[in-house]
Amino acid sequence: MFVTAGSRIGYYILMTLSEELIWRGFLNQTTFTDVKDLDSEKRTFYMGFDASGDSQAVGNLAAMMFILTFIRHGHDAIILAGGSTSLIGDPGGKDKERPMQSVETIAHNAASAEKEIQRVFAGRQFRMVNNLDWTKDMKVLDFLRDVGKHFSMTPLVQRDYVAQRIGEGGVGMSFTEFSYTLLQGYDYLHLFDEYGVTLQLGGSDQWGNCLSGVELIRKARGAEAHVVTLNLVVNKATGRKFGKSEEGAVFLNETKTTPFKFYQFWINSDDEGVESYLKVYTELDKNMIDDVMDEQRESPSSRIAQKTLAREVTKLVHGADKTEAVERVSEALFGGLAYSELSEADFKELAGELVVVEAARGAELADLLTSTQLASSKTEARRFLADSAVYINGSQFSSEKTVLEEFDALHGYAVLRRGKNATALVKLI
What we know:
- This protein has helices at residues 17-24, 58-72, 85-88, 103-120, 132-135, 140-146, 153-158, 160-166, 175-178, 180-195, 207-221, 259-267, 274-281, 286-298, 304-318, 320-334, 344-351, 365-371, 378-386; strands spanning 2-3, 27-30, 44-49, 76-81, 126-130, 199-203, 226-230, 244-245, 248-249, 355-359, 390-392, 395-396, 413-418, 422-428.
- It is an alpha/beta fold.
- The protein has a seven-stranded mixed β-sheet, sandwiched between helices. Strands 10-14-13-11-12 form a five-stranded mixed β-sheet, sandwiched between helices. It has a two-stranded antiparallel sheet with strand order 8-9.
- The radius of gyration is 26 Å and the shape is elongated.
């Protein structure tokens, strides 16, 4: 499938590709003797995405930004959904074999990945393929004769992840897992034959698998092919892999991580790493990022770097309209924006993030405080009300107010807050 759309962003390239890869912190390992060789020839390249889960995550988004850098510099992109390799499961970085998933589950996951990738790459030209298309009808004898014969067992069993699994104290490895690297190598060979692909991009943990394709093309076709791998993005504050919140992984699918929570993940990013995240996860150029960081250093409390990061990444993944909505909702909850400035759509966005109860006009406020879990009992609720510790749409309740009235609602909703942070939403029916 060939995908293209209208231009999404104006971008003025001030660097060569190799310079930008280094400046953004993308470059990990490469088969090129000199990475500047990337600047002298336009290539067709590919990068694969796993389909073992039903959504891509923030770690995968870094790989997408890696791809976009090559596209901006005029290289032709092929994005591969791992419809067949995900049926096997990549053993790299795993201390035991992952559970097998059904063909139907992997097909669903691959389709979901394609939708997310198309959204991120809107406005760019690229080709999308699925390796199940060229492996599903392959005969085992053909695979062993045409692919397997080109691989020596010695270097394969010496790879770190294989040696750890089959060595003393390891849990072992099935032949199914062991064959994964051959399948990935065959993908590269197929794309070399079909589309003239001579460059594969991969994550830092894919170096060995990527080399399988390089070796296979050299032995089977007598041709040269190359690999460039991407650095792992690390949370500078914790030293751990970047991309997880307190609730777990941050996904691109809004049914798994809502746009609001997605935005909040970025807005809460650490000061130590925010400049690196701007380089990896946005297409802002060096001058723009330098300006943002200068402003951040002059006024750290403004958190302009985090706000810029959150806006740019949320817009990339969820679109401008969703981004503007979650910015307004965030400002209403945590900033100075009045709830009266929110639209009906904004309140619906807010409803996805807060405890929501339905109530009729005249409902007792003490009952609403308990049903929204802002108070543990009606006795406690009445005490909060008597102490004027309850707010509606940002305004403090009068201690004499006991019921919710129709004029208390905005677009049919009322935001109840107790104290500084305990907030819930009432939908008037």
